[in-house]
Amino acid sequence: MKPHLKPLVKQLLSSRRVSLPGAAPADTLHADSRPYPNGWFCLAFSDEVRPGSVTTRPLAGAEVVLYRTAKGVLRAVRPRCPHLGAHLGVGGSVEGEDIVCPFHRFAFDPAGVCVRTGYDKPPPKASLTQYPVCEANGSIYVWWHALGMPPQWEVPVFPMDDRQPYSHDTFDIAGHPQDVIENAFDWGHLPALHGLQGLDIEGSPVAGEPISTVTATARGTMMRGFRQSYTLTVIGLATIAARTVLPLGAGNLYVMLHATPTSPGRIQLRFGTKLELNGVPGVPETLGRAAAMPVARLLSAVLQRVASVDTGADLLMWHHQEHVEQPKLAKGDGPIGRYRHWAQQFYTQPTDGLVAPRPSRDEVSRPEV
């Protein structure tokens, strides 16, 4: 990263709500007219929603309540109780396998069905509106579609140890998910903004496929002093997952970057780092394996701080970036044009004058209300 950018990046990272004097966030100057993309969006890292907890998160101009039952069943529901509209995320609680409304203590089972009231009377025929939810790679995803269609594809699962959580941060910034995910195919910014050297990178999105892969080798990554190889897995217009195999078979480093639309021109950017070690160098194998996880957790927190500064340079760009529909691309930019055509599959309405595939009538379901 260029030295003059560091003070701005540190200022950005010091606040959940970014405020830089002299430069307004992009959403206050030019409204982003692009719609919300369809797909799976991360609303939390797994350790943020523990058994018995209730959490409210924004998604595409609305709110979603996430909760886990005592047995660990994960659910995502519309916040409003169907009885009299109380917000389940404000004072709601989990009792055993049920979520309980704070207003009249109506309880709903994991299927969303009302099973009792606070009056010791038979419950009404009422149900919560549930959203498709899945948990993969230490992250909790909720499916969103402009037409209310059910999930069209699945989030890929990586071979990682789910017992170890990510060290993570969340930032509320101006931006659009498409611009964040474009980073995986904007190869020109890697040496220019991040100082990567000796970059050897390849991979292009495949039309119609929701998952894309980019492989790269470079110097100047988090593993300073090494020429490091890594793989980026692009999941819809929502996630860039990076996996780096450590030298000498020591383990793997995972970095997750999630972009979740919250309101027009605004996103929550979730960023997490996890180091998985096969052992501890210089320590006997049996003892090293036992110590690997606590050592890895400590190092993950350190690497998260290091990586946040580097990723903060991207956050700085996104927070003030105006989307250019017809960019003047140059050699060395990477397959940005191909990426933008690929991205159209995630929209119900086309953007940038491109054509998006439309579902047939028999594929469309009514949005839940």
In terms of topology, how is this protein built?
Layout: H1 6-13, H2 26-29, E1 39-45, E2 54-59, E3 62-68, E4 74-77, E5 93-95, E6 98-100, E7 107-108, E8 114-116, E9 133-136, E10 139-144, E11 167-174, H3 177-181, H4 189-194, E12 197-202, E13 211-219, E14 227-235, E15 239-245, E16 251-263, E17 266-277, H5 285-320, H6 336-343
Antiparallel strand pairs: 1-10, 2-3, 3-4, 5-6, 6-7, 7-8, 9-10, 11-17, 12-13, 13-14, 14-15, 15-16, 16-17
Report on this model:
The structure is a single chain. This protein has 369 residues and is α+β, with helices and mostly antiparallel strands. The chain is built from six helices and 17 strands. It has helices at 6-13, 26-29, 177-181, 189-194, 285-320, 336-343; strands at residues 39-45, 54-59, 62-68, 74-77, 93-95, 98-100, 107-108, 114-116, 133-136, 139-144, 167-174, 197-202, 211-219, 227-235, 239-245, 251-263, 266-277. The strands form four sheets. It has a seven-stranded antiparallel β-sheet. A four-stranded antiparallel β-sheet has the order 5-6-7-8, with no helix packed on it. Strands 1-10-9 form a three-stranded antiparallel β-sheet, with no helix packed on it. The longest helix has 36 residues, at 285-320. The N and C termini lie far apart (47 Å). Mean pLDDT is 86; it is low at 353-369.
Question: What's this, in brief?
Answer:
The protein has six helices and 17 strands.
What are the salient characteristics of this protein?
alpha+beta; 7-stranded antiparallel sheet; 4-stranded antiparallel sheet; 6 helices; 30% strand
